Automatic annotation (TrEMBL):
Organism, scientific name: Antarcticimicrobium luteum
Chain coiled-coil ranges: none
Region (Disordered): 113-171
Compositional bias per record (Low complexity), positions renumbered to this chain: 141-150
A GO term for molecular function: single-stranded DNA binding
CC per GO annotation: nucleoid
Biased composition annotated in UniProt, kind: Gly residues: 119-140
SUPFAM superfamilies linked: Nucleic acid-binding proteins
Protein name per the record: Single-stranded DNA-binding protein
GO biological process, one term: DNA replication
InterPro entries noted in UniProt: NA-bd_OB-fold, Primosome_PriB/ssb, ssDNA-bd
Length: 171
């Protein structure tokens, strides 16, 4: 049995356009704000109730950050899989502050676009799934410094998986 697990899965909508920032070392981070909602019927009034939670997501995978910046917009529906991390920082007055966010790093984390290619208009449509799963694959952009002090980052899978028919699978 595993000693512990740190895994977060969210399906929700972006509350604003992705925000991409660059670091002096050339690395990038893409920040997302994702809303998830629970609905229920109030037992006393019979009214439908809704509670929305807002989640901060930080993508430190350059390929995923580039794709998020290019294709996601406010209102886009996404599936996010990452790890929960808390970091300490100082505000302008020098006070220590803490932020907890879902973090996607190269080779760990997944981002799937659930809207169709037409931005979710109309019915159905295909989304794109992008991630940096255990095999990695894709490009390697070389070592980079991590602002959180983690291991140097590489690339991740930067393109959607192909649609392979069962007849084409070699096993």
């Amino acid at each position: 049995m595993a000693g512990s697990v740190n895994k977060v899965i969210l399906i929700g909508n972006l509350g604003r356009d992705p925000e991409v920032r660059s670091f002096p070392n050339g690395g990038k981070v893409c920040n997302l704000r994702i809303a998830t909602s629970d609905t229920w019927k109030d037992r006393n009034t019979g009214e439908r109730r809704e509670k929305t939670e807002w989640h901060s997501v930080a993508i430190f995978n350059e390929n995923l950050a580039r794709l998020a910046e290019q294709y996601l917009r406010k209102g886009s529906k996404v599936y996010v899989e990452g790890k929960l991390e808390t970091r300490k920082w100082q505000d302008q007055s020098g006070q220590d502050r803490y932020s907890t966010e879902v973090v996607l790093r190269p080779f760990s984390g997944e981002l799937t676009f659930l809207d169709g290619r037409d931005g979710g208009q109309g019915g159905g449509g295909q989304g794109g799934s992008y991630g940096g799963g255990q095999g990695g694959g894709g490009y390697d952009s070389g070592p980079q410094d991590d602002p959180y002090g983690g291991a140097p980052s590489g690339g991740g899978r930067g393109a959607p998986s192909s649609n392979i028919e069962d007849d084409e699978i070699p096993f």
